[in-house]
Amino acid sequence: MVTEELKENPEKSLEEITREKVLVGLNMIKPGIEWKKEFIDRLILLELNSKINRDSRMVEAGLVSVLNEMALRRLGKITDEHLSETRVAARIHDVGKSGPPEADKEQQLAVTQLFATEKLKREHKDIKVEKAVREIVFKGNEYGANLMLARLMTCGVDISMPMQSFWESHARWGAEIIKKDCGGLSENTKLIAILHHVDKGPEFNFSDTLIEEIDEEVLQGALTIGQLEDYVDAFRQRAIIAVDQYDAYIHRSGMTHELAIATLKKKIEGSKTFSKDALLRFIIQVMEDMGKEKIFDDMVKQL
């Protein structure tokens, strides 16, 4: 799509066209938000140098499908305002993969490239960052490896940490970026975007709303009297956790629907925060019933 727009608008640069694409996408979901240039610049960098934004749009599509399914089953109605907030949160939730908030453009590019490389797999999670860069990402290219490592170190990345710790760092970086550069968003939208990983929350000093357990008795009571929408914030926060993790299993790990759901259930069972949370288990059960094709429906074709 961007290539076609370049042909039609030769006077515009690739970055200008990408900026328009990013802003139009956000404004179509929720008009009237004033986005800081620094924040949009990060989304542009992710768009041009990785599939990270596309993955976020995939999560957005999955969230819409799950929320619509809940409404069809009369399990909880979500307002248009709540839906637009949730979609914006999904679209920006991985902005931390562009690096720490203090990183400059070159440093952001280095972080993004390390997140985006398809040479690194889950089996490399225990390899130190420096070794991964030298022996996998830039194998045989000492200059490229040294340049990436220098840029990572100068923005505060510890190259002696394992890749798993590096991958997990994006949650903290994203929280800091969103709190710093997204003043135009509601607190709920920011909260949904920030807390999209299991067992991430208190260290961000943002809110303890997410970790308030909803047990089976509370859930069944809400279902019985048709008031699940009373828990709309908790529901949206949990839905993005479930869909984001499911999307990673399906599209990055290549799992089947059945294996992705089973792996997600196992992850939740081992969670310090959600092992006994009935609402998150309920959402995963709805997703299991839906199947992959229904979760990632025709919206995906537009991505």
UniProtKB/TrEMBL annotation:
Listed Gene3D superfamilies: Hypothetical protein af1432
Task: Tell me which domain of life the UniProt entry assigns to the organism this sequence originates from.
Answer: Bacteria
Protein name as catalogued: HD domain-containing protein
Which organism encodes this protein? Candidatus Nomurabacteria bacterium GW2011_GWB1_40_7
